[in-house]
Amino acid sequence: MMELYVSTMKINHLETTPFTDQRPGTSGLRKKVRVFQQPPYLENFVQAIFDTQIDLKGGTLVVGGDGRFYNREAIQIIIRMAAANGVARIMVGRAGLLSTPAVSAVIRKYQTQGGIILSASHNPGGPDGDFGIKFNIANGGSAPEGITEAIFERTQAINTYRIAEEPDIDIDHLGTHTSGEMSVEVIDPVDDYAELMEQLFDFAAIRELVTSGFRLRFDAMHAITGPYAHEILEQRLGAPEGTVINGEPKPDFGGGHPDPNLTYAEELVAEMFGTNAPDFGAASDGDGDRNMILGDNFFVTPSDSLAVIAANAELIPGYHGRLKGVARSMPTSGAVDRVAQKLGIECFETPTGWKFFGNLLDAGRITFCGEESFGTGSDHVREKDGLWAVLAWLNILAARKQSVAEIMKEHWAEYGRNYYTRHDYEEVDSDAARGLMQHVESQLAGLVGQQLDGYTVSYADNFAYTDPIDNSESSHQGLRIGFTDGSRIIFRLSGTGTAGATLRIYIEKFEDDVAQQAMDAQLALADLVNIAERFSELKQRTGRECPSVIT
Ligand code: G1P
Ligand code: ZN
């Protein structure tokens, strides 16, 4: 007998108008919370996702965010709109929480048609802070430019959005609900991710380490990694309670700036560089994709961290015997290149931005990749992954039974040390910043072979990249001056800054004499910094005497 099904869901078609500022950047669409709170700003963008991502109709969508202010409200709107747009199933992290790498892991594990991440990464939150939305595709990675452009174009053309007249879903308890005809599964935000970590790392060895007097501190900065770190480090690995600090996610991140670097992770940095410091310290950012690794009075640069993980891959069960290749963004130091060379594996240099690793990961050409901006990851997901990097280090520490400093020093002795620093000049006048870049670029031709304070230039160009998998080209990715001794100076304008321009100057110097490897990085690089500042007429053009942030 044929069953006649009559839908009881009421769908409203509400009016919307194009917003000219909805072109997503490399990390999705980011604006002030107050902008997103004004209907139909969020609705317009979400409808554009449903209109262009047709596989979502009848498919499964993952939704979660870093818990920042407006996360919960946005999730309820997205659930109602998904129901009205024919999504069959939506998976939501409990309390609306899911870290960026966890969304990637869940999409891949359940083979969903994509996911929506609500986050503005490390930008401050709260009612006056930032909010953001990003669509990830079925491989678990950020949507490539073709898709974000299509979404943007759609935001410019639509005039109505669809939303079901349904009550709010209880997202605070695990279980399956319905919104209209769509099934809503509230999932544990940590379980699937923690299970993946257990498959990759030697949890037994790490457990033995962290329960045998080794002192570990993890700063979740009142952001998303709190629940993950409590469960993985304290529960599953047995680290003492109190190992995780600032572990409760707060809508305003406790008023802080959840960016794991030497400036913003103040509490952790003070402890790790104090007397009687723990053996290992780490922090992650707002949405859990960045990481900072510290030892007792020791800072591991993200570039070195990537190199150490690659060099020690054989000690990590999930990577044993299957290291294919590695990749780093262009401004990231060449430390990992030296490891790749020794191991006889491929090493790729990509433009800044995690999306450039996607094709290489999907094609199985690389296993590890990283950026100098505190991003490290592997082929286990398609986002950088903060806690993954922490567990990789703990696994290596457990296997080698040495301190962070000892591991780093042995690494430098074997491969040489790439001294490295990044100087950021934030909120520089946009015209002045552009002028400076033009001035630098205009001097590049004819520079090869010339000497700058005793350093001989071996190449000078504006970095361009051809993707080895799909042959797509990306040009103007940063001005590089390379020297014959392996030193480099790079000038780049940030693509993520919100006020004025952010100028980044990256400086690197290679040192293979062990006796010269224990210097302070700023001291070791002082002459190259000087060259960079003079060559770019930095002070005259920007009026700045010193950088806003030094990493
Ligand atoms: C910054 C980092 C870059 C990273 C991006 C997103 O971009 O430098 O490595 O991929 O944030 O986290 P930038 O502001 O330099 O364009
Ligand atoms: Zn982030």
Largest sheet: 7 strands, mixed
Given the helix and strand composition, which structural class is it? alpha/beta
Put simply, the count of helices is 18
Measured between the Cα atoms of the first and last residue, the distance is 70 Å
CATH fold-type name of the largest domain = Alpha-D-Glucose-1,6-Bisphosphate, Chain A, domain 3
CATH architecture label of the largest domain: 3-Layer(aba) Sandwich
Which CATH class of the largest domain?
Alpha Beta
For the record, what is the CATH homologous superfamily label of the largest domain? Alpha-D-Glucose-1,6-Bisphosphate, subunit A, domain 3
Quickly list its features.
TATA-Binding Protein; 18 helices; binds zinc ion; alpha/beta; Alpha-D-Glucose-1,6-Bisphosphate, Chain A, domain 3; 551 residues; binds 1-O-phosphono-alpha-D-glucopyranose; seven-stranded mixed beta sheet; 3 domains
How would you portray this structure in words?
The chain is an alpha/beta fold and 551 residues long. The chain has three domains: 6-189, Alpha-D-Glucose-1,6-Bisphosphate, subunit A, domain 3 (Alpha-D-Glucose-1,6-Bisphosphate, Chain A, domain 3, 3-Layer(aba) Sandwich); 193-411, Alpha-D-Glucose-1,6-Bisphosphate, Chain A, domain 3; 417-550, 2-Layer Sandwich (TATA-Binding Protein). Helices cover 31% and strands 25% of the residues. It is built from 18 helices and 27 strands. Strands 2-6-5-3-4-9-8 form a seven-stranded mixed sheet, sandwiched between helices. The protein has a seven-stranded antiparallel sheet with strand order 20-21-24-25-26-19-27. Strands 11-10-12-13-14 form a five-stranded mixed sheet, sandwiched between helices. Helix 10 packs parallel to helix 11. The longest helix has 15 residues, at 386-400. The protein is globular. Zinc ion (ZN) is lined by residues 121-122, 285-287, 289-290.
